[in-house]
Design brief:
Elements: H1 8-24, H2 30-70, H3 77-111, H4 129-135, H5 143-162, H6 194-199, H7 204-228, H8 234-237, E1 245-249, E2 253-254, E3 259-266, E4 275-279, E5 282-283, E6 285-287, E7 290-296, E8 304-316, E9 322-334, E10 339-342, E11 348-349, E12 354-359, E13 369-373, E14 376-380, E15 386-391, E16 395-403, E17 406-416, E18 422-426, E19 446-450, H9 453-458, E20 464-476, E21 479-486, H10 493-496, E22 504-515, E23 521-523, E24 530-534
Parallel strand pairs: 2-9, 11-17
Antiparallel strand pairs: 1-3, 3-7, 4-5, 4-8, 6-7, 8-9, 10-12, 12-15, 13-16, 14-15, 16-17, 18-19, 20-21, 20-22, 22-23, 22-24
Length: 536
């Protein structure tokens, strides 16, 4: 509602929405996807607490009326009516929240391929196209427009049903980008409606975060009305009676090259509490009540080992008394084993793009590799762990792999020449090979170079050949009576040679080149350089 005073929780949710909006304007990367998922998780937690506050406020209102009646008094008709209206409001809000959640689950299932039961993570959190097809479609027939109408209708009904309480009209839940300062100078995005702005070119992780943020606004509108109905301000009324020190580790199994990462916090911390934290006796940086723990793991670990830790959180409560809470645990450091797989395995081919896939299972999602190569170059792939190695010299090549600036390991490869292709005589279309064991009619033939089968199977993109020189000799009675040179494998023989039955043509291939998939050209030696046919 415009002009309404926001609680600390609502301010926090508003700040997360600004961050979410800013992230939507960035190019999607794995790092940004992780931030979308973090925002979504934070919003889910905030919304869960906000819903609990709404339930508690209604329960408090109901208890007040009950206490009055138990003391012999009589609740006023206005109070009883407000309680009924508050319960009806909670019912409407829950229905709207359930409706939004159904869209979130559908996006996760149909666009994100569901949740991996082993990791608990969305299988395809980066998918964008399926989100657009589902929520936008064409001619405004996407499901996003269905949701937009339902959200708009919900806001209208809220105001109409409770405007007698003196509330101002609520801001729309589905605003366009026209008044968004983020797109003030952006002529393309400035004109987008809410559906296109929220779900166009938007990954699954961002789409569900957008919808979770809409849930927070729905709850905020509900709580504004609850206050008008006499519900207590639960944000100020809730008092914590138990405080537990917690450490949330990103991973408890680590390898050299990684670092132990965790979040330390009070499970019931308050914004007005200034905490000091230590981890294994050392100070911890605290931001917004959350301690950030980073412990580098030394290289050279063999086998596995457990490392115990102890976390201490201290603060001064509202009475001026010191409070200290402790918790402990352990993490496991395991040896990082570098694994490399490829289509060629070992050896690699010189001057070719040899694709490799590297992994360190012990590092899991924290594996962030960089590569160095002796006697060649390494080209990182589009997926984490992928690398293309291009050897520059024959002999040996060593591929080194690091993660997070720490050396993980290396592997040595043999580097060999590309196997020579074979040449054969084909018809003018190049789709039918000419037999050499029997006489054939003279035609417009061409010489083609064909890759060695195993090389083609391993690196098909490196098997692009062209013939650059052919000398054709006309033979009659066992002696050469003329010849002609060609700069390619295509030849107009009937025009250039006057042959008779029993004559022969000898084709000597003088040049073959291979085009690398990376753009280079090199001369190639061939197995046999002469092809002879008898003329029918």
């Amino acid at each position: 509602m415009a002009g309404a005073k926001e609680t600390p929780r609502q301010k926090m949710v508003g700040m997360m929405y600004l961050v979410l909006t800013a992230l939507l304007a960035l190019q999607v990367s794995s790092s940004i996807i992780d931030k979308f998922l973090f925002l979504n998780s934070s919003l889910e937690i905030a919304n869960s607490k906000a819903e609990a506050s709404s339930e508690a406020s209604i329960a408090a209102l109901e208890k007040t009326i009950k206490d009055q009646e138990e003391k012999g008094g009589k609740a006023s008709p206005v109070a009883l009516k407000n309680l009924d209206r508050a319960k009806e409001l909670r019912k409407k809000t829950k229905a709207m929240l359930a409706r939004i959640e159904s869209f979130r689950q559908k996006i996760v299932k149909e666009a994100g391929d569901g949740v991996d039961p082993k990791t608990g993570q969305i299988k395809n959190a980066k998918e964008e196209t399926k989100v657009e097809i589902m929520m936008i479609a064409t001619n405004k027939k996407g499901q996003g427009y269905t949701l937009k109408k339902e959200l708009d209708d919900f806001v209208t009904r809220l105001y109409n049903d409770y405007k007698d309480l003196g509330i101002q009209p609520f801001d729309p839940l589905t605003p366009t980008n026209e008044k968004n300062p983020l797109y003030k100078t952006d002529p393309i995005n400035r004109g987008k409606d809410w559906v296109n702005a929220s779900f166009g070119q938007t990954p699954v992780a961002a789409a569900i975060a957008v919808l979770e943020q809409k849930k927070s606004e729905v709850i905020r509108y509900e709580q504004e009305i609850l206050k008008r109905l006499g519900a207590v301000d639960v944000d100020n009324a809730v008092k914590f009676d138990k405080i537990v020190a917690m450490v949330s580790a990103e991973s408890s199994v680590l390898a050299p090259g990684d670092e132990f990462r965790a979040k330390m916090f009070l499970a019931a911390s308050a914004s007005n509490i200034k905490s000091t934290m230590t981890f294994n006796g050392g100070p911890v940086t605290v931001r917004d009540g959350v301690g950030e723990v980073k412990i580098p793991i030394a290289a050279g670990v063999k086998g596995s080992s457990e490392v115990p830790w102890k976390a201490v959180i201290s603060f001064v409560d509202q009475k001026g008394e010191n409070q200290t809470y402790e918790t402990s645990g352990k993490y496991t450091v395991v040896e990082g084993v570098l694994q490399i797989s490829s289509g060629t395995l070992n050896p690699l081919y010189i001057n070719c793009a040899n694709p490799l896939v590297t992994s360190v299972p012990a590092l899991g999602a924290s594996y962030n590799p960089s590569f160095d190569v002796s006697q060649g170059r390494a080209i990182p792939g589009s997926q984490k762990g992928e690398v293309t190695v291009v050897p520059a010299n024959l002999g040996k090549l060593t591929l080194g792999v690091s993660s997070g600036g720490n050396k993980i390991g290396s592997k040595e490869f043999d580097v060999i020449p590309t196997p020579p292709p074979t040449v054969a005589l084909f018809n003018s279309a190049g789709d039918k090979e000419i037999p050499l064991d029997k006489p054939v009619p003279l035609g417009n033939f061409q010489i083609l170079a064909q890759p060695e089968p195993n090389f083609y199977k391993a690196l098909p993109k490196e098997c692009s050949y062209r013939v650059t020189g052919v000398i054709v000799t006309h033979i009659r009675g066992g002696a050469g009576i003329g010849e002609r040179s060609y700069s390619s494998g295509s030849m107009n023989l009937p025009k250039d040679f006057d042959v008779r039955k029993g004559d022969a043509l000898s084709f000597k291939i003088t040049g073959v080149q291979r085009a690398s998939s990376l753009g280079g050209i090199e001369d190639i030696k061939i197995k046999q350089s002469v092809v002879t046919i008898a003329i029918k």
